Each structure stands twice: as C-alpha cells, then as structure tokens.
Amino acid sequence: MSQKFTRRGFNKLVIAGAAGSTLGVFGSAKPLFASQKHVVVIGGGFGGASTAKYIRKLDPSVSVTLVEPAMTFYTCPFSNWVMGGLKEMKDIGHTYDVLQSKYGIEVVHDEAVEIDATNHSVKLKGGNELKYDRLVVSPGIDFNYDAIEGYSEEVANTSMPHAYKAGPQTELLTKQLQEMADGDNVLICPPGNPFRCPPGPYERASLIAHYLKKHKPKSKVIILDAKEKFSKQGLFTKGWEKLYRGIIEWRAGSAGGKVMSVDPATMTVQTPLGPVKGGVVNVIPPQRAGKIAFNAGLTNETGWCPVNPITFESTIHPGIHVIGDSCIAGAMPKSGFAASSQGKVTAASIVRLLQGKVPASPSLVNTCYSLVGPGYGISVAAVYKLTSDGIVSIKGAGGLTPMDADDDQLSEEATYARGWYNNIAQDIWG
Amino acid sequence: MVKKITSWLSVGLISAAALSGCNTQKSETQDSAQQSEAEIVEVDPRGEILALSCASCHGTDGESVGIKPGFYGKPAAYLKTALIEFKNDERYSTVMGRHAKGYTDEEIDLIAEYFGGLNQQNSK
Prior knowledge:
The complex is a heterodimer of chains A (about 425) and B (about 120). Helix content of chain A is about 30%, strand content about 25%. With about 425 residues, chain A is α/β, with parallel strands linked by helices. Chain A has two domains: about 5-70 and about 110-140 and about 285-360, FAD/NAD(P)-binding domain (3-Layer(bba) Sandwich); about 145-285, 3-Layer(bba) Sandwich (FAD/NAD(P)-binding domain), CATH 3.50.50. In chain A, strand 11, helix 7 and strand 12 form a beta-alpha-beta unit. The radius of gyration of chain A is 22 Å and the shape is globular. Chain B has about 120 residues and is mainly α. Chain B folds into two domains: about 1-40, no CATH class; about 45-125, Cytochrome c-like domain (Cytochrome Bc1 Complex, Chain D, domain 2, Orthogonal Bundle). In chain B, helix 3 (about 45-50) crosses helix 7 (about 105-125) and helix 5 (about 75-85) runs antiparallel to helix 7. Classes of the chains: A alpha/beta (about 425), B mainly alpha (about 120).
C-alpha cells in the first residue's frame, strides 16, 4: 500500500491542485457570508469528527458542517469488549451534542449520496445540497460481500454477522454468542490484507474465548484466516497459551483456513480441507473504501483512495480530502487512532490552506491496544513521518509490547487501554 | 528526498494561493493583524501539528479524563525533561518510550513549547 509519486505525477498534482482550487473560487456559489470559509465533512467517526472539531478549534472563523446518518456513533474499538461481556453498547456510543454546542459544528443527520467535485457541492439523501470550499470524506469501509460465495449483506444482517461496523451487527453477534449451545464452536473468518483494524479479529477471538471460558466451557474459537500471519501474532499466541490453552485454534490460509464459500442454512464454512460448522459464524469480508468515496470516483484500482500525504487531499479530485480507512496512507494501518491522527493533520492543513498559507509537514501517530484478557493488554505503536516514499514509520521508534513483559506491565497496558479509550473518545466527540 | 517533500509542500502552496485569489501576496503582518481580531493566536505550525498527536491518548490539550497522565498546565521545561527521559529510557513507561523515540530533540522542544504556550494563553 505504499505510494510513490513520480516527478511527472507531481507536476500533474500541482496543475490539478491549482486548477481545481481556481474552479472553487470562481465556479462555486459562496456561503452566506462571502468571507467565511465553509468546510463540509462526510462521516462522523474517528476521522471525520476529529477533523470537524479541530478545524473549529484551530480557526473558529471557518464554518463546518458534519454529515453523519447516525444520531449515536458506536465505535469499532472496544466493540470486542462488548462481545466478551466487559462493556455494554452504551459504553461505546457517542453523540454529537458537544460538537454542536461547544464547538459550533452544524451536524446534519443525513447521508451524502453524491459529490459534485467541479461545483464543490454534496447532495444528501434527504434532498438538500451543501456547498463547500473544502470537503473532507471520511466514510470508513465498505464490504465486498461478493468476494465470498454464499455471503451477502442480508446474510450478514441475519445469520453470519461481520460485526466490523459497530452497532446492530455487534449486538447480533453478542446475542448469538449468549444463545449458542455449550459445546458449539465460534468461527471467526478474517480477510486478507489490507483491512480495518489488523489486530481486531484476534482481540475478538481473545475476548470471545474469555466469555466461553466462563459461560460455555465446552466450546472453542476457531479462526479460519485468509492470511499466513497476523498483527501482534507473537504476543497474541503467547497470551492465548497462558489464558486460553485449547480454547483458541488458528488456521493459516495455507493450512485450511481459507474460506471458499459459506452456507448460512447449515451455518457451515467451506475450506480446502472440508466443511467447518459453527454455532456462531463471524465472517469478516474483504473491504474497500466507503461507498461515497467509491461513488465519487475518489478510489483507484486498489479500491482505496490515493491522497497527497501532507494534506490528505485527493490526487484525483482537488479540494476533497480523504482520510481514515478509505485513504491510502503509506505505512499507517486502517485504525480509528490513525484516522483521528489524519483528521487532525487534515484540519491543520485545511485551516492553513484557507488562510492562504503553506501546510506544515505532517506528523502522524498510531497506537493500537488489544485486550487479550481483562487484565492482560498488549499494544503496538508507531510514529510516522513524510519521506520521498510517502508516509513511513520512523525507525527505532514505536513497536510492540516486549515479548518478555511481566504480568504487571501487561496489566498496566490493559489499564491504559481503558484510559486511552476514554481520552480519545473525549478528544473526538467530547 | 528534500526536493520531493518540497514538491509536496508546493502543491499545498499553489493550491492555497489559488484559493485566496488576488490576496496571495498578503504579508505576515497583515495576517497576524487579521487573526488577532478573530482572537486566533499564531503558533508554530510545526509545533502545533506535532503536539496534536498527543491528545489522542492524553486528552484534548493534554487534559486527561481517564487514567492516562494529563499534563495540562505543566510548563514547557517540565514537559521537555519528561519527554527526553522517556526517549532515553531514563523514565519507566509502557508505551511512552516507544513514542518519544520518534521525535528529534528539536521536535520535543517544539511540542513542549506548544503545550507550555497553550497553558499561558488559556490562563490569561
């Protein structure tokens, strides 16, 4: 997913940027107050809400409209904790009240269905149209349901949830776990790279195992993986040995893990080594950029959105910034933390661009905490900088929880995981 | 490498110049005057962009609402010492050492000054 720009590519970028922005000045209708700049943000998750808040914080003269269909946004981070019985849905839900009242952001609960990049406007499902000086697109992911034979959105909503967008899917999977007979197995089927939250399926396996150990001791978790290796593998494997020996089984893609098709009627997954039946079947399909990014032509052949790594401005449509899971951000993973970090860099860039100034060189970070058990946390961190190869992680910095971390450190990491969640949620929606 | 990054920045510059129409030659003095009217305090843009990262774990402006240590109200010198010690493994941490190693001493200065300055502004 690393991106390189050729010199010619750069020249194109420069020309495109200039032309697009000129159109913005002379071609689009101005907001009510001619001098006031207006930014529209599509998506109220980690990326979009961060951008909206930080634009208003850094320059209150810029007006911001945030478009998000949900009244309450449920976070994917910590949704595994709900499945494990450690949190409730209300703990991972966030509203937009503070962004409206304290930061003066106009929040429109509607869905963006069309972007007119030439005329700088966004059409909403409800019929309204929003004009913008700069647009931020942060729609998260969309699923390639067709990639797995027998799977579909309907199957996901009724019998084999992906639970990779938090909300009703999280509740469905949690309910299925509670209703499952003791002795039945839970199948988790993660996709190949790249996908949202690389350690997510393995934290999920851990916390479901925690639940099973307590409530269904005859059941186990089988991970049918499309991949040969996974994020924080050494640390997870060590934790599973310690806490869930015999409860979690991981099958690599080449060892019969690859899912070829699913049959919801019999709750069966077909693999090269034969069918596997589950009491609960969690299929996480391959992913691509969120629907609106796709429809607006912001994606390239990879299904994700190429961007300028300083401003996160689309290299396809100038004036539109794409952040979070949908964008191609070099070495950065598709995580809520990364999306928020990109959102802040984008907010700072947009503020400076609207003031006619040069954006600062970006500094980006990521920390992904995973819980193996209630008092057993692990993390991976990285600090990123811009080089000629795009966004790369700084050598010598970041990295994983040490493999020889003692029980106290692992317990501290679990405590800090909770602390991280409280603070990032406050930093974004509070 | 430097040239390449300058090119990336120039994309932003040209884009910004086009956006602000005829007023691209505005001097910094004019900018500052306009901003003080809007009550925006000029900060080092690099310091700002480095410092914004910290809030994702430590809370907006370093005001923590959870168990993670907050540092709102701490002076720049204190923050600088702490970050340098984390960077050099002279202070125990779970993850801070891994983060602090990602910044040069100059960048640590900018981060410390940003938060130190922020506290001063808000206490006025």
